[in-house]
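Issue 218. Parser rejects a valid record. Input:
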Amino acid sequence: MHSEANEALAKQLEATGQYRVLRRIAPHLPGYSFEGGTKIGIVLDVETTGLDTNRDEVIELAMIKFAYSADDRILGVVDIFQGLQEPSSPITPEITTLTRITNEMVAGRAIDPLAVDRFASEANIILAHNSAFDRKFTERFWPVFVHKPWACSSSGIPWKEHGFSSAKLEHLLAACGFFYDAHRAVDDCHALLSLLTRDLSHTSTTVLADLLERARRKTVRVWAQGSPFELKDTLKSRNYHWNDGTDGRLKSWYRDIGEEMLEAELRFLKSEIYQLDIEIIWQEVTALDRYSCRG
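Output the parser choked on:
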């Protein structure tokens, strides 16, 4: 009765047009037993000792395994995984402030690689809100993630086209009328799963369905290797990103585009950047290697 009274009060406030009330996201509880014909997705998040995907370490891994239908509807939560790991060097105060994970919490703790493998081995898709970050870390520590398809709920959906001013998870959920206690990995997983169940504005498509449809598309990564330094702003304005080469890939500006845009992009580079008819490096990208350091 107490929660019902609070909800009634919230609706009264909203009815005035002067207030917006945010509801706290409730943790998802496991209990769904998937059957034949359903697929398995995993929402994943890591907390780390820093941002360097080559040197820093994972101190927390959280995953929520869920079942989804052939038409990409979430059916229920199958299981939840959460593990802490002690890094080789002490966690800095800055990381503790950010993650709320202390050295005392991880002392003597280790994430069992066999448990991670058992949990993730049957997944058809791995989803994270910053897959370019999470995938590189998880692939370093747990090989089960290397050959899985991945999708990113941050960059994988054109949020601005749907009326959102930011792709941050907290902002997206607040715009949908919800809030949660961020920072810990499992909290972010519960939050992302809630977002995936929402309908996109002005459509009858859920966030999950739209994200998976886009993730299945083949894209092309075009490298503007050796482009003149003075034209870097031109490339940036065309949504090129800089890769410094420390991840083993080319030290170069690059852009990810749809297959249908390739010919136009090559013409642009040849005429506007190089002013020469030269061979330009490009590669096809699928969900199996998207966001990975491989290639």
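Fixed in the parser; the record now loads. The first strand starts at residue 23 and ends at 24.
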